[in-house]
Amino acid sequence: MPRTRTLAWSQLKIGILAVAAFVLATMLIFAVGGDAGIFSGKFHLKTRFPNAGGLASGSVVRLAGVNVGAVDDVYFDGAVVEVVLRIRPEVANKITDRSVAQIGSVSLLGEGAVDISASSEGVPLKDWAYIRSSKTPGQIADVAENATQTLAQATALIEDIRAGKGTVGKLFTQDELYLQLNAVVKATDDVVSAIKNGKGPAGTLISNQAAAKNLERALANLDQVTTGIAEGRGTLGTLLKDDALARSLTSTTENLRAVTAGLKNGEGTAGKLLTDNALYNRLDSVVNRLDALVTSLNKGEGTAGKLLQDKQLYDNMNGAVSELRGLLAEIKKDPKKYLNVKVSIF
Predict the structure, then answer these.
(1) Cα–chain-centroid distance for residue 96?
(2) pTM (2 decimals)?
(3) How far is CA 180 from the centre of its chain?
(4) Whether 113 contacts 105, CB under 8 Å
């Protein structure tokens, strides 16, 4: 009997150790694979992506970079991929309708993960609610696509250059443009050489110290002039600094403004000429009559017109005046011949 009891207790100890090892292994598996304890509750969210990006059941779910759960399932819902996320309940209040889910990676080998942005604003999401998703910037696929597009554009650019399109293409393919560019470079080199040798105004300024000194003196004089103006010397300085002159100019401007206002209001003769239509009409009528009179004179109408236009009348009047002058001259010479006065007394 004692031997039988010892064997039973040994077997019992082995069984207890086996069960404990199994329970510990199960707990380790759940802890490592799901980032949640075996006795903890569950909180689920859903999201959608146009591309799974390497996600699979068991992929890590991170909230602000911290592991908070795992992917439960990945399946197609029409043309998009729907992902079910299992998250620890204690961090559920940090995921709101302002949070966004993106596909990330755990390592450079391409193992997928879901990154969720934490938010303290907005309404916390409920169990099995959908969280917004967005495309992750800077993914390897995007970089490869951009590199492919860049290479295609570079290839097209090289083909255009080889075909002689554009200025660069013509420079590579046409000798004429190359010769013109070479001539421009040579001319520029000649100009620089001439300046270095003291030729021309620029060369003189660089190589001739006397010219440089003259320019320096001119600049010094200009500085003195501007300094004098700034200090109120001379006419320009007075204009800038003299308050009395400024007031006088201001008064003149105000008087001119008053005169202009008077003209606009029809004050004075000039103002009436500008604003009084009746005076304008009378002046216009006088001018019209004067124009008609001048036109009539030019046509030879009336006595004055005939005097201006009829040559025969002019000659007759000129002859009559000449004869009258002759008669007056003879009377002066011999008055008795023409002036005979007899006095009779009754």
Answers:
(1) 41
(2) 0.35
(3) 36
(4) yes
